[in-house]
Amino acid sequence: MRIGIVVESYWGNTAQVAEAIAAGARQTGAQTVVWSAAQAPAQIADVDLLLVGAPTHNLKLPSSSSRRIAARRGIDVDSSGVREWIASADLSGVPTVFTFDTRVSLHSGSAAKDAAKKLKRRGAHVEQGEGFFITGDTPVLQAGEIERAKEWGSRLAC
């Protein structure tokens, strides 16, 4: 199985989750590639499964305004992210897309849900995937989330 992962990350947490998902998938023999949303190809080809992940900001996917706010806080952010990538990507060759996100709690919204809606509008066959939890003022992944991401990657690749 070939799995592509498009990810946007500010503090590094969502990128860590993406890499853990990829590692779990590779344990089952899958081939994986991880792209930052700003560097992801506009046309994804030769994948059996695509995953799209982002941090949850203001209950949904990050936007240009949330990136400006992050930049003012000293975070090195790309000028575009998952929201913009979805708007311009050619998903015609992708059989299935799963979304995932990082978030503070079950009640803090979901970038994965927002991404799934946007991907469906673009004609993709989408499944809303997992939310991985962060904590703290300088957010870090909660204990056990990396292992959970690896397990999810392994299950998806089977």
Automatic annotation (TrEMBL):
GO terms for molecular function: FMN binding. Signal peptide: none annotated. Residues 3-157 form the Flavodoxin-like domain. This is Flavodoxin-like domain-containing protein. It comes from the Bacteria. It comes from Brooklawnia propionicigenes. Pfam families: Flavodoxin_1. InterPro entries: Flavodoxin/NO_synth, Flavoprotein-like_sf.
